[in-house]
Fold these 2 entries.
Entry 1:
Amino acid sequence: MNGKTNNVKKYNGKLNVIGNQIQCLRIEKHLSLYQLSNMLQLIGIDIPKPSLQNIESGKRIVKEYEFYAICKVLDVPMEKMLENFINELESQ
């Protein structure tokens, strides 16, 4: 270990609530992880393919600026990306 403690809270066993939505939208738009990574780089956000893969699988936290950029390149409102999460919280 490197001396750090892993005290990150998970929601339903994942580090983010939008990974599945990103994957669904990416596939719906016929984009590969590599293509999505390139689209993000064109607007100045560097998220390599392996990192995107980890985001989609819930193994990586999404920073707020990354969240906005992903929504922008996938052409989806941030609220829509969070819709399933919001509905789940409101139904409890």
Entry 2:
Amino acid sequence: MSLLNKDKLMNGFGKAVDAVNNAADKAGRYAKEKELDKKIDNMAHSLEEGVKDIGKSFQDTFCGK
């Protein structure tokens, strides 16, 4: 006699997979709705510009201008 019921186990895995897929779909819809990709790109560009400014300041400070 097996300790695990194969059908119940497979049913449980199926429900878990469905739940994960549902969560991923909701996250995708939310990201698209809120245009998170555009916001992330904008933040990355702002960060890049800030890092360039800091690098220029360090260069001016330590290497002289």
